[in-house]
Amino acid sequence: MSTMLNRSTTGELGPEMRPLVDPGELQPRIVHFGLGAFHRAHQAVYTEAAAARSAQPWGIVAVGPRSAAPVEAARAQDCLFSVTDRMPGGGRIRVVGSVLDALMMRADAERIDRLIASPEVTTVTMTVTEKGYSRDPGTGLLNTADPGVTADLTATAVGDPLPMRTVVGRLTASLATRFRASGAPVNVISCDNAARNGAALAAVVRGFVEASAWPDRDALLDWLQTSVAFPCTVVDRIVPATTPEDRAAASKALGLRDETPVAGEPFRQWVLEDRFAAERPPWELDGALVVPDAGPHQLMKLRLLNGSHSILAYLGLAARRDTVADALGSDWGERAVRRFAAEVAATLPEAGLDVAGYVDALVERFGNPAIGHRLRQIGSDGSLKIPERWFPALRALRAGGFATPVLELALAAWVNATRPGGSQVFGTDDPAAEALARCWRGAAEPAVVARLLTAIGAADLAEDAGLVSAVADHLPALRAGRIEL
Ligand code: CS2
Known about the structure:
Blueprint: E1 27-33, H1 37-41, H2 43-54, E2 58-64, H3 69-76, E3 81-87, E4 90-96, E5 99-104, H4 109-117, E6 123-126, H5 147-155, H6 167-181, E7 186-190, H7 197-211, H8 217-227, E8 228-229, E9 233-236, H9 244-254, E10 262-264, E11 269-273, E12 289-291, H10 295-318, H11 324-328, H12 333-345, H13 355-366, H14 375-379, H15 382-389, H16 391-399, H17 405-417, H18 433-439, H19 445-455, H20 459-462, H21 465-479
Parallel strand pairs: 1-2, 1-6, 2-5, 3-10, 6-7, 7-8, 11-12
Antiparallel strand pairs: 3-4, 9-11
The chain binds D-mannonic acid.
Enzyme class: oxidoreductase
Keywords: NAD, Oxidoreductase
InterPro entries: 6-PGluconate_DH-like_C_sf (IPR008927), 6PGD_dom2 (IPR013328), Mannitol_DH (IPR000669), Mannitol_DH/Oxidoreductase (IPR050988), Mannitol_DH_C (IPR013118), Mannitol_DH_CS (IPR023027), Mannitol_DH_N (IPR013131), NAD(P)-bd_dom_sf (IPR036291)
């Protein structure tokens, strides 16, 4: 198929597949960091519907923080892409028109800076995954020892806002440009899986300003406090990385070549804390929930969905399973999710949450055979994910004197997956892979467990001898591919 999906060919699409908006009528009012599948299947979809239903011209300029390929691929089709809802026995596809342009964080720094400084842009959003926040694993604050952060901080001494390498550096430098240009209020919205993600983002931005050489940093800190909102959010939709088969299937269904399709489950949820400093799209028109406190939803999602995703990933990899649905279909899969959730649920706030209903829905969502969500994808970046997903519950339970058998097994499965071999033993990858591999050198298994915990910022858990030995006891069975649960 040679005709490409782009603005001049959308007329060839069946009416039910056309974008809800004409991108030519939208304006760049949102800058988004992170061009991945999740953003396009989530915030881009909500924003398109909000623009269509309100007749307000909310358009997104998306910034690719790292590689050029996704940005070039998006531009080659005028940033149009299809979203397929995958469900057992079929799917539904349509093209989304809310992304207007794609830019590269370093090569297009000047345009990004101008956009974020312009008062027409009222909202910055981001999906840059845990590693995009440059946090110190122990403190959660900006990791000023990170070489990218160090280089960006050095750049603040020369007064040129453009050479930034990290997302935090780029975002903060452009917010500083906005402050100096008009000082117009702005929303900066984290859409990543972290507890109190807005506060986490605010902390690294403030940390960057504090460590910068900018002479006006005190005034900038005041402005951040009064005029920039960092609401916390919960984002949810299972969207696996796009495969070549997805590209072929989308192109066939559309009748136009789409090199950047996304496919995910039909379910999606977005909860935002009602704390904005400037105008933003009326995402409620597409079902987003705007609430006084996103905390309880966030803990439930992070601890139950992401937490059980991670246990399924590491147990499943040990048992040589490939996808979430495969793992769930094993004789231990559903039990792992339900027992994990039962253990962790005791740490959730009493806020009228329907935990039982949530867990039933999870089992159904994870079992969706049409999704093909690779365990390796979920298992990657474990050193950053499990401290968010498992450790707060593990700490709370142990401090309260509760038994933690499922979390111990989960941790053992992660330890098992960090064994060196290729990058990591199951082909998952981790920004800390080298440091993790060093933990395995010349030590007996209980010592390896303690070293690994320390390496990912959990020295307190490493000192919990009962925990460490319980984790180490599971390793031989896991190594042999046996799941004992
Ligand atoms: C997953 C998440 O890759 C992962 O680690 O747990 O991406 C998960 O699919 C989403 O958070 C669902 O909303």
